[in-house]
Structures
1.
Amino acid sequence: MEVINKELFMNSFQYFDKEIVSEIIEIFIDEYPDRIENIAKSLESNDFSQLKFHAHSIKGVIANFAAPEAQETAKLLENKGAEGIEEGTQELFEKLKLLTEAMLEELKVLKVNFE
Protein backbone atom coordinates (compact mmCIF):
# COMPACT_ATOMS: atom_id res chain seq x y z
CA MET A 1 0.00 0.00 0.00
CA GLU A 2 1.45 3.34 -1.05
CA VAL A 3 0.12 6.20 1.05
CA ILE A 4 2.31 9.11 -0.01
CA ASN A 5 2.07 10.57 -3.50
CA LYS A 6 5.85 10.61 -4.06
CA GLU A 7 5.78 12.95 -7.05
CA LEU A 8 3.67 15.51 -5.21
CA PHE A 9 5.82 15.09 -2.10
CA MET A 10 9.06 15.73 -4.01
CA ASN A 11 7.51 18.70 -5.86
CA SER A 12 6.34 20.20 -2.56
CA PHE A 13 9.78 20.00 -0.99
CA GLN A 14 12.04 20.54 -4.02
CA TYR A 15 13.05 24.07 -3.04
CA PHE A 16 13.48 23.38 0.67
CA ASP A 17 16.85 22.90 2.29
CA LYS A 18 17.40 19.13 2.56
CA GLU A 19 18.20 19.35 6.28
CA ILE A 20 14.89 21.09 6.94
CA VAL A 21 12.91 18.42 5.09
CA SER A 22 14.75 15.72 6.99
CA GLU A 23 13.99 17.53 10.26
CA ILE A 24 10.27 17.93 9.37
CA ILE A 25 10.06 14.19 8.71
CA GLU A 26 11.94 13.38 11.92
CA ILE A 27 9.63 15.59 14.00
CA PHE A 28 6.57 13.78 12.63
CA ILE A 29 8.16 10.38 13.32
CA ASP A 30 9.02 11.44 16.88
CA GLU A 31 5.62 12.99 17.63
CA TYR A 32 3.53 10.28 15.97
CA PRO A 33 3.15 7.93 18.97
CA ASP A 34 1.81 10.74 21.18
CA ARG A 35 -0.50 12.02 18.45
CA ILE A 36 -2.07 8.62 17.85
CA GLU A 37 -2.29 7.92 21.59
CA ASN A 38 -4.11 11.22 22.16
CA ILE A 39 -6.70 10.24 19.57
CA ALA A 40 -7.07 6.80 21.19
CA LYS A 41 -7.58 8.38 24.63
CA SER A 42 -10.17 10.77 23.21
CA LEU A 43 -12.07 7.82 21.77
CA GLU A 44 -11.84 5.79 24.99
CA SER A 45 -13.28 8.65 27.04
CA ASN A 46 -15.81 9.76 24.38
CA ASP A 47 -14.27 13.23 24.54
CA PHE A 48 -15.45 14.52 21.19
CA SER A 49 -13.92 17.99 21.53
CA GLN A 50 -10.50 16.43 22.13
CA LEU A 51 -11.08 13.97 19.28
CA LYS A 52 -11.84 16.89 16.99
CA PHE A 53 -8.74 18.75 18.19
CA HIS A 54 -6.29 15.84 17.86
CA ALA A 55 -7.72 14.60 14.54
CA HIS A 56 -7.50 18.14 13.16
CA SER A 57 -3.92 18.43 14.36
CA ILE A 58 -2.73 15.19 12.77
CA LYS A 59 -4.67 16.05 9.59
CA GLY A 60 -2.67 19.25 9.25
CA VAL A 61 0.63 17.47 9.69
CA ILE A 62 -0.34 14.73 7.23
CA ALA A 63 -1.19 17.42 4.66
CA ASN A 64 2.52 18.31 4.53
CA PHE A 65 3.37 14.84 3.27
CA ALA A 66 1.05 14.43 0.27
CA ALA A 67 -0.92 11.52 1.73
CA PRO A 68 -4.49 12.28 0.59
CA GLU A 69 -6.23 9.14 1.87
CA ALA A 70 -4.69 9.49 5.34
CA GLN A 71 -5.56 13.18 5.36
CA GLU A 72 -9.17 12.48 4.34
CA THR A 73 -9.50 9.78 7.03
CA ALA A 74 -8.24 12.22 9.68
CA LYS A 75 -10.75 14.78 8.37
CA LEU A 76 -13.62 12.30 8.69
CA LEU A 77 -12.53 11.51 12.24
CA GLU A 78 -12.32 15.23 13.00
CA ASN A 79 -15.87 15.68 11.65
CA LYS A 80 -17.15 12.86 13.89
CA GLY A 81 -15.62 14.68 16.84
CA ALA A 82 -17.13 18.00 15.77
CA GLU A 83 -20.57 16.43 15.40
CA GLY A 84 -20.28 14.32 18.57
CA ILE A 85 -20.97 11.12 16.65
CA GLU A 86 -19.47 7.95 18.11
CA GLU A 87 -20.69 5.59 15.38
CA GLY A 88 -17.87 4.66 13.02
CA THR A 89 -15.13 6.43 14.95
CA GLN A 90 -13.29 3.27 15.95
CA GLU A 91 -13.23 2.03 12.36
CA LEU A 92 -11.94 5.39 11.14
CA PHE A 93 -9.29 5.38 13.85
CA GLU A 94 -8.12 1.89 12.86
CA LYS A 95 -7.94 2.97 9.22
CA LEU A 96 -6.03 6.12 10.19
CA LYS A 97 -3.54 4.06 12.21
CA LEU A 98 -3.02 1.66 9.31
CA LEU A 99 -2.48 4.49 6.83
CA THR A 100 -0.24 6.58 9.05
CA GLU A 101 1.90 3.62 10.06
CA ALA A 102 2.45 2.86 6.37
CA MET A 103 3.13 6.56 5.84
CA LEU A 104 5.78 6.47 8.59
CA GLU A 105 7.61 3.69 6.80
CA GLU A 106 7.45 5.57 3.50
CA LEU A 107 8.76 8.73 5.19
CA LYS A 108 11.71 6.83 6.62
CA VAL A 109 12.64 5.76 3.09
CA LEU A 110 12.08 9.24 1.63
CA LYS A 111 14.11 10.83 4.42
CA VAL A 112 17.24 9.21 3.01
CA ASN A 113 16.91 11.49 -0.04
CA PHE A 114 17.26 14.51 2.23
CA GLU A 115 20.17 13.50 4.41
2.
Amino acid sequence: MSRNATALWHGGGKDGHGHLTTQSGVLKETQYSFKSRFEDGPGTNPEELIAAAHAGCFTMKLSFVLGEAGFPPEQIETKCDITLADGAITKSHLTVKAKVPGIDKEKFDACAEDAKKNCPVSKLLNTDISMEAALV
Protein backbone atom coordinates (compact mmCIF):
# COMPACT_ATOMS: atom_id res chain seq x y z
CA MET A 1 0.00 0.00 0.00
CA SER A 2 1.19 3.50 -0.75
CA ARG A 3 -0.42 6.85 0.05
CA ASN A 4 0.64 10.33 -0.97
CA ALA A 5 0.26 14.01 -0.30
CA THR A 6 1.54 17.03 -2.17
CA ALA A 7 2.89 20.32 -0.84
CA LEU A 8 3.08 23.40 -3.04
CA TRP A 9 4.96 26.45 -1.70
CA HIS A 10 5.31 29.96 -3.14
CA GLY A 11 7.94 32.42 -1.93
CA GLY A 12 10.41 32.50 0.93
CA GLY A 13 10.18 30.63 4.20
CA LYS A 14 8.87 33.50 6.32
CA ASP A 15 6.88 35.50 3.77
CA GLY A 16 5.74 32.63 1.56
CA HIS A 17 2.65 30.49 1.67
CA GLY A 18 1.58 27.11 0.48
CA HIS A 19 -1.04 24.44 0.46
CA LEU A 20 -1.29 20.73 1.08
CA THR A 21 -3.40 18.21 -0.80
CA THR A 22 -3.84 14.55 0.13
CA GLN A 23 -4.55 11.64 -2.16
CA SER A 24 -7.92 11.03 -0.49
CA GLY A 25 -8.95 14.66 -0.94
CA VAL A 26 -9.52 15.15 2.80
CA LEU A 27 -6.99 17.96 2.54
CA LYS A 28 -7.50 19.87 -0.69
CA GLU A 29 -5.30 22.90 -1.11
CA THR A 30 -5.28 23.32 2.67
CA GLN A 31 -3.39 26.47 3.56
CA TYR A 32 -0.16 26.51 5.52
CA SER A 33 2.40 29.23 6.13
CA PHE A 34 5.02 30.53 8.56
CA LYS A 35 2.19 32.05 10.60
CA SER A 36 0.21 28.80 10.79
CA ARG A 37 3.35 26.97 11.85
CA PHE A 38 5.04 29.36 14.27
CA GLU A 39 2.30 31.83 15.24
CA ASP A 40 -1.50 31.69 15.26
CA GLY A 41 -2.25 32.11 11.56
CA PRO A 42 -4.99 30.29 9.67
CA GLY A 43 -4.26 26.88 8.20
CA THR A 44 -2.43 23.78 9.31
CA ASN A 45 1.22 22.86 9.76
CA PRO A 46 3.42 19.75 9.58
CA GLU A 47 3.54 19.26 13.36
CA GLU A 48 -0.26 19.32 13.65
CA LEU A 49 -0.51 16.76 10.85
CA ILE A 50 2.12 14.54 12.52
CA ALA A 51 0.18 14.81 15.80
CA ALA A 52 -3.03 13.74 14.01
CA ALA A 53 -1.23 10.88 12.28
CA HIS A 54 0.37 9.63 15.49
CA ALA A 55 -2.84 9.90 17.53
CA GLY A 56 -4.85 8.12 14.83
CA CYS A 57 -2.31 5.38 14.17
CA PHE A 58 -1.66 4.67 17.85
CA THR A 59 -5.38 4.57 18.65
CA MET A 60 -6.13 2.11 15.86
CA LYS A 61 -3.14 -0.06 16.86
CA LEU A 62 -4.27 -0.05 20.49
CA SER A 63 -7.73 -1.17 19.38
CA PHE A 64 -6.17 -4.11 17.51
CA VAL A 65 -3.88 -5.02 20.44
CA LEU A 66 -6.75 -4.92 22.94
CA GLY A 67 -8.97 -7.00 20.65
CA GLU A 68 -6.24 -9.61 20.16
CA ALA A 69 -5.89 -9.78 23.98
CA GLY A 70 -9.61 -10.51 24.28
CA PHE A 71 -10.68 -7.04 25.40
CA PRO A 72 -12.39 -5.20 22.54
CA PRO A 73 -12.57 -1.53 23.50
CA GLU A 74 -15.77 0.49 23.58
CA GLN A 75 -13.93 3.76 23.02
CA ILE A 76 -10.38 5.11 22.86
CA GLU A 77 -9.52 8.80 22.77
CA THR A 78 -5.92 9.85 22.19
CA LYS A 79 -4.44 13.33 22.18
CA CYS A 80 -0.97 13.74 20.73
CA ASP A 81 1.25 16.72 21.50
CA ILE A 82 4.19 17.23 19.15
CA THR A 83 7.04 19.44 20.38
CA LEU A 84 9.14 21.37 17.86
CA ALA A 85 12.27 22.90 19.40
CA ASP A 86 15.49 24.18 17.86
CA GLY A 87 14.42 23.14 14.37
CA ALA A 88 13.62 19.52 15.24
CA ILE A 89 10.68 17.47 16.48
CA THR A 90 11.91 16.58 19.95
CA LYS A 91 8.89 14.87 21.51
CA SER A 92 5.59 13.18 20.80
CA HIS A 93 3.42 12.79 23.88
CA LEU A 94 0.30 10.61 23.79
CA THR A 95 -2.51 11.10 26.31
CA VAL A 96 -4.95 8.20 26.16
CA LYS A 97 -8.40 7.67 27.65
CA ALA A 98 -10.09 4.34 26.95
CA LYS A 99 -13.24 2.42 27.89
CA VAL A 100 -12.32 -1.27 27.88
CA PRO A 101 -14.75 -3.63 29.66
CA GLY A 102 -13.21 -6.34 31.84
CA ILE A 103 -9.55 -5.31 31.56
CA ASP A 104 -7.36 -4.55 34.56
CA LYS A 105 -4.92 -1.62 34.71
CA GLU A 106 -1.80 -3.79 34.38
CA LYS A 107 -3.05 -5.51 31.21
CA PHE A 108 -4.26 -2.21 29.75
CA ASP A 109 -0.89 -0.58 30.42
CA ALA A 110 0.90 -3.49 28.71
CA CYS A 111 -1.40 -3.22 25.67
CA ALA A 112 -0.92 0.56 25.48
CA GLU A 113 2.87 0.16 25.70
CA ASP A 114 2.76 -2.43 22.88
CA ALA A 115 0.72 -0.07 20.71
CA LYS A 116 3.02 2.88 21.48
CA LYS A 117 6.07 0.86 20.50
CA ASN A 118 4.61 -0.85 17.44
CA CYS A 119 2.23 1.51 15.65
CA PRO A 120 3.67 2.40 12.23
CA VAL A 121 3.87 6.13 12.97
CA SER A 122 5.79 5.52 16.22
CA LYS A 123 8.23 3.44 14.18
CA LEU A 124 8.48 6.16 11.53
CA LEU A 125 9.37 8.80 14.08
CA ASN A 126 12.50 6.76 14.84
CA THR A 127 13.48 5.68 11.33
CA ASP A 128 16.03 6.62 8.70
CA ILE A 129 14.76 9.01 6.05
CA SER A 130 15.68 8.50 2.40
CA MET A 131 15.16 10.97 -0.42
CA GLU A 132 15.29 11.45 -4.14
CA ALA A 133 15.70 15.08 -5.07
CA ALA A 134 15.72 16.77 -8.47
CA LEU A 135 15.61 20.29 -9.76
CA VAL A 136 13.02 20.91 -12.46
3.
Amino acid sequence: MSRGLRIKRLINEVREFIKLAGELISMDIDKFMADYRNRYTLRFIIVEIVEACVDIGLIILREKLGIEEVYGYKDVFRKLNEYGVISSSVYRGMADLVGLRNLIIHRYWDIDDQRIYMEAYSNGFSIVEKYLEEVERFAFKP
Protein backbone atom coordinates (compact mmCIF):
# COMPACT_ATOMS: atom_id res chain seq x y z
CA MET A 1 0.00 0.00 0.00
CA SER A 2 1.39 3.41 -0.93
CA ARG A 3 2.30 6.01 1.70
CA GLY A 4 -0.56 8.25 0.60
CA LEU A 5 -3.13 5.48 0.84
CA ARG A 6 -1.89 4.40 4.28
CA ILE A 7 -2.08 7.97 5.55
CA LYS A 8 -5.58 8.45 4.12
CA ARG A 9 -6.76 5.15 5.64
CA LEU A 10 -5.41 6.16 9.06
CA ILE A 11 -6.93 9.64 8.82
CA ASN A 12 -10.33 8.12 8.02
CA GLU A 13 -9.95 5.73 10.94
CA VAL A 14 -9.17 8.59 13.34
CA ARG A 15 -12.14 10.60 12.10
CA GLU A 16 -14.40 7.59 12.65
CA PHE A 17 -13.11 7.27 16.22
CA ILE A 18 -13.69 10.99 16.81
CA LYS A 19 -17.29 10.52 15.66
CA LEU A 20 -17.77 7.60 18.07
CA ALA A 21 -16.21 9.58 20.92
CA GLY A 22 -18.59 12.44 20.15
CA GLU A 23 -21.53 10.10 20.64
CA LEU A 24 -20.20 9.07 24.05
CA ILE A 25 -19.46 12.57 25.30
CA SER A 26 -22.82 13.84 24.11
CA MET A 27 -24.34 11.83 27.00
CA ASP A 28 -24.67 13.56 30.29
CA ILE A 29 -21.89 12.56 32.65
CA ASP A 30 -24.13 10.56 35.01
CA LYS A 31 -25.42 8.39 32.17
CA PHE A 32 -21.87 8.03 30.81
CA MET A 33 -20.47 6.96 34.19
CA ALA A 34 -23.35 4.58 34.94
CA ASP A 35 -22.32 2.09 32.25
CA TYR A 36 -18.81 0.66 32.38
CA ARG A 37 -18.99 -0.01 28.62
CA ASN A 38 -19.04 3.73 27.96
CA ARG A 39 -15.96 4.28 30.10
CA TYR A 40 -13.97 1.44 28.55
CA THR A 41 -15.03 2.43 25.04
CA LEU A 42 -13.84 6.02 25.52
CA ARG A 43 -10.54 4.76 26.91
CA PHE A 44 -10.10 2.49 23.89
CA ILE A 45 -10.98 5.29 21.47
CA ILE A 46 -8.37 7.61 22.99
CA VAL A 47 -5.69 4.92 22.75
CA GLU A 48 -6.61 4.15 19.13
CA ILE A 49 -6.65 7.82 18.13
CA VAL A 50 -3.20 8.44 19.60
CA GLU A 51 -1.71 5.31 18.08
CA ALA A 52 -3.12 6.04 14.61
CA CYS A 53 -1.87 9.65 14.82
CA VAL A 54 1.59 8.38 15.80
CA ASP A 55 1.51 5.96 12.85
CA ILE A 56 0.69 8.85 10.50
CA GLY A 57 3.57 10.83 11.97
CA LEU A 58 5.99 7.93 11.61
CA ILE A 59 5.09 7.48 7.95
CA ILE A 60 5.77 11.17 7.30
CA LEU A 61 8.98 11.23 9.32
CA ARG A 62 10.44 8.07 7.80
CA GLU A 63 9.18 8.09 4.25
CA LYS A 64 8.86 11.79 3.48
CA LEU A 65 11.59 13.30 5.67
CA GLY A 66 14.01 10.37 5.97
CA ILE A 67 14.08 10.46 9.78
CA GLU A 68 14.54 7.03 11.34
CA GLU A 69 15.32 7.72 15.00
CA VAL A 70 12.32 8.49 17.14
CA TYR A 71 12.23 8.05 20.91
CA GLY A 72 8.63 7.53 21.90
CA TYR A 73 5.22 8.84 21.00
CA LYS A 74 5.77 12.42 22.17
CA ASP A 75 9.00 12.56 20.15
CA VAL A 76 7.04 11.82 16.97
CA PHE A 77 5.00 14.99 17.49
CA ARG A 78 8.05 16.98 18.61
CA LYS A 79 9.89 16.09 15.42
CA LEU A 80 6.86 16.83 13.26
CA ASN A 81 6.81 20.27 14.85
CA GLU A 82 10.57 20.68 14.51
CA TYR A 83 10.38 19.96 10.77
CA GLY A 84 7.41 22.27 10.19
CA VAL A 85 4.79 19.61 9.61
CA ILE A 86 2.62 20.63 12.58
CA SER A 87 2.33 23.84 14.59
CA SER A 88 3.60 24.27 18.15
CA SER A 89 0.07 24.40 19.55
CA VAL A 90 -0.83 21.12 17.85
CA TYR A 91 2.42 19.57 19.09
CA ARG A 92 1.59 20.53 22.69
CA GLY A 93 -1.99 19.29 22.41
CA MET A 94 -0.96 15.97 20.91
CA ALA A 95 1.77 15.55 23.56
CA ASP A 96 -0.92 16.06 26.22
CA LEU A 97 -3.08 13.44 24.53
CA VAL A 98 -0.13 11.02 24.60
CA GLY A 99 0.04 11.63 28.36
CA LEU A 100 -3.63 10.70 28.68
CA ARG A 101 -3.05 7.59 26.55
CA ASN A 102 -0.12 6.61 28.77
CA LEU A 103 -2.29 7.02 31.86
CA ILE A 104 -4.86 4.66 30.35
CA ILE A 105 -2.36 2.07 29.11
CA HIS A 106 0.11 2.05 31.99
CA ARG A 107 -2.31 2.89 34.82
CA TYR A 108 0.18 5.21 36.49
CA TRP A 109 -2.49 5.74 39.12
CA ASP A 110 -6.13 4.81 39.29
CA ILE A 111 -7.82 5.90 36.11
CA ASP A 112 -10.34 8.67 36.68
CA ASP A 113 -13.00 8.11 34.04
CA GLN A 114 -14.81 11.25 35.07
CA ARG A 115 -11.64 13.25 34.32
CA ILE A 116 -11.26 11.50 30.94
CA TYR A 117 -14.87 12.31 30.10
CA MET A 118 -14.47 15.95 31.19
CA GLU A 119 -11.28 16.41 29.17
CA ALA A 120 -12.91 14.89 26.09
CA TYR A 121 -16.09 16.91 26.69
CA SER A 122 -14.38 20.26 27.26
CA ASN A 123 -11.72 19.94 24.55
CA GLY A 124 -13.50 17.54 22.27
CA PHE A 125 -11.02 16.23 19.82
CA SER A 126 -10.44 19.55 18.08
CA ILE A 127 -6.66 19.26 18.53
CA VAL A 128 -6.75 15.92 16.73
CA GLU A 129 -8.77 17.41 13.87
CA LYS A 130 -6.21 20.23 13.65
CA TYR A 131 -3.41 17.65 13.61
CA LEU A 132 -5.11 15.77 10.78
CA GLU A 133 -5.54 18.98 8.77
CA GLU A 134 -1.89 19.92 9.21
CA VAL A 135 -0.50 16.49 8.30
CA GLU A 136 -2.86 16.26 5.32
CA ARG A 137 -1.64 19.65 4.10
CA PHE A 138 1.97 18.49 4.39
CA ALA A 139 1.57 14.94 3.10
CA PHE A 140 -0.55 15.82 0.10
CA LYS A 141 0.90 19.16 -0.94
CA PRO A 142 1.65 19.34 -4.67
